[in-house]
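To the structural biology subgroup,

Please find below the input and predicted structure for Glutathione-dependent peroxiredoxin, which we are adding to the shared reference set this quarter. The sequence is reproduced verbatim from the submission form. If anyone notices a discrepancy with their own records, reply to this email rather than editing the shared folder directly, so we keep one authoritative version.
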Amino acid sequence: MSINAGDKIPASTLKTMGAEGPVDITTDEIFKGKKVLLFAVPGAFTPGCSMTHLPGYVVNADKIKAKGVDTIACMAVNDAFVMDAWGKAQNAEEILMLGDGNGDFTAALGLEMDARGFGLGTRSKRFAMLVDDGTVTHLNVEPAGGVDVSSAETMMALL
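Predicted structure (tokenized):
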């Protein structure tokens, strides 16, 4: 069963890239006392993610933050090295790039998908959520193949 609006974010540890390499970052560090817009993609460097999803957040980052969002975070079931390289390739300096390499956080959210048919293994569904001090206030999960309900523009309208 997936997480829903009103639920607390489960405790987990993700990875982000630090000056010396990958570093742990806990969900408390990401969400506690903050308003966060977290969006997830099936995979870094994949077409829909690279052409539409992440670029929408990059272009609108200042507008999103101006509406009271402390952190915009992008997550995928990829490692921190891949997420860092993808963020740099997309000029995503304002986005916290999070690697959920083993998919543990994605599974805890109940938002995993079977992408073995594409040779990708278990990945995250495409989604976006607004989280206020660790509690989900909005969750938009895309139907297969879509990049609409989790887009930057759709999420901005909820702020």
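Summary notes: The longest strand covers residues 135-141. The radius of gyration is 14 Å.

Regards,
Lab coordination
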